[in-house]
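Posting this for the archive.
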Amino acid sequence: MIKFVKYLAAIALMASISVVAGEEKAAQCSSQKQLTLKIDGAACEATCAALDKVLTGLEGVKAESCSKSHLTKVTYDSTKVKAEQVFAAFKKAGVKVEGQQIELAVNGMACSSCSTKVNKALTKLDGVLNGAACHQSKKATVLFDPSKVKSEQIVAAINSTGFKVASDAPLAN
């Protein structure tokens, strides 16, 4: 239980991250927050539907779960609901959160070697479950365990490669 509470606290810190690069600036000034969470691999369509029902039962919450990708995208109004309540809804639905996904705009990548360099830096971090950089989209998508690694560490790892995460990318406090 204590481990779960610590996990919730770590996730709550991450709640200010917007996972859609085009909405980064707007999300920082808005009360709308977005989380993309990887859920237990055993989740089927019925479980995802039940999770969505529990989540959308919270005032100001919209959710989309996909049993194929095992990702749940949650958008919530932080003036009406707190991140802790969102995570409590996962527990109430009997769904385990395995990690959080963020997408960061990365400046300077021009070829597949650039993407490979960023990928290697990401996968060296303890707590990164999957890291994928793409020079064509100029983005890095990272699935991580927020109880083991912070978004700031992910950004630092990318920046250490010589490429830079866009300066307007939202980070947890």
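The radius of gyration is 16 Å. The first helix runs from residue 2 to 14.
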